[in-house]
Amino acid sequence: MIKVAGIDVGNDSVKVVVDGSPRPILIPCIVSPGYDRHVLQEEDSPLKALDVQIRSPKLKRNNQRYFVGLLAMEDQDNSELEETDNKATSDQSLVVALTALAYAAIAGQSYPAASGLEEAEYIIGTGLPVRTFVAFQHVFEERLVGEHEVAFLSTPELRGRTVRVIIRRAVVSVEGAAALYHLATNEQLQVKNDEIHNGCIGICEIGALTTDFPVVKRMNIDNQFSTGEQFGLAGYLDSIIRDVEDQYGYHFPSRAKLIGRIRNREFTVQRVGEGKADIRPIVDMYFSRAAQKLVDLIRKRWRKYPDIECFYVLGGGASALRSYMLEASGGIRLRFEDDSEMLNVHGYLKLAKSKTGQAPAQS
Length: 363
Ligand SMILES: Nc1ncnc2c1ncn2[C@@H]1O[C@H](COP(=O)(O)OP(=O)(O)OP(=O)(O)O)[C@@H](O)[C@H]1O
Ligand SMILES: [Mg+2]
Fold this sequence. Notes:
By secondary structure, the protein is α+β, with helices and mostly antiparallel strands. Helices cover 34% and strands 26% of the residues. The protein folds into 2 domains: 2-174, Nucleotidyltransferase, domain 5, CATH 3.30.420; 197-338, 2-Layer Sandwich (Nucleotidyltransferase, domain 5). The chain has helices spanning 70-73, 91-106, 130-144, 177-184, 194-198, 233-248, 255-263, 280-304, 316-328, 343-355; strands spanning 2-9, 13-18, 25-28, 31-33, 50-55, 64-68, 117-128, 146-152, 162-174, 200-206, 211-213, 215-217, 220-221, 227-229, 268-270, 276-278, 310-314, 335-336. Adenosine-5'-triphosphate (ATP) binds at residues 8, 10-13, 207-210, 232-234, 237, 259, 263, 315-317, 319-320, 341. It comes from Fontibacillus phaseoli.
């Protein structure tokens, strides 16, 4: 049976929602080279120890072993993506995406009676930033569509299982605009918010490495006014990591580790030789700077295109910067949503359903 899924191949994390299953899956987009690791105590969930070998004709380095997500987060040889990476062509993005789709297909299911290769067939919806969309949508689609193989090695519960991930179709949409589509429609893809559906809406979708500014008018993307910027929250996180290291000698092994702390509002770090340090002032300084820059960009765009009726600030960066942006916004009203890093992926699933005729009949 072919599953329809939305997959947001994010620079910070890959998110997957499979049609009909309630819980989205999120895997940090970090990988490190895999090896036979010593397992003193098995992790309590597969997501904590994704250890995979991936075979795909679309990878530049085929048939390699990787630690993916949480397992790679502490590794000193781990890699997170940089500004120069392009998710449409990056091996790392594809490795995490395929791992996520393979995991989504077999998680929580017992080993099939006839052992051997398990198959997972998908139609997927996904997306690219405004500025890469035109040049790379077909490249991205071609990279995803086809047959790939993911073998789970030391992963608890999934050890020894191999999944053939077959992607039949990939519908590529525009980041940010997909999030808005999700906000405008219900699960049956009917309009649930007239204001968004019929209005002219500005969006500022803050990702890890890109920030997209699509303008959507009556649910159509405005070709002339939609743009994007090649920066996101990651650059600011890198600066915070560097300053904390310089000032307190404390090293965060990855951006993911830092954002985990910020999310839980744990701002004290342990110093070598006892004592603790408060990193809050450093975080505040960089986040206020980021917020000011984004509010200025929004103001500029709104002046250029005064037909915009309201502005939504979305993406994971919006969750991180919400209070700072509200403070910087002056007289401008900005709209935020909860769980804003998950809006695109829900939008991708809906767009895939609507474009491939998998949608329930509209009344
Ligand atoms: N709830 C949250 N609170 C604080 N920060 C968050 C939250 N969710 C995500 N972030 C951070 O916001 C940034 C953007 O997250 P998001 O998931 O939107 O990025 P992405 O989609 O993976 O990246 P890109 O859009 O550049 O491909 C990341 O640095 C992430 O760590
Ligand atoms: Mg994103």
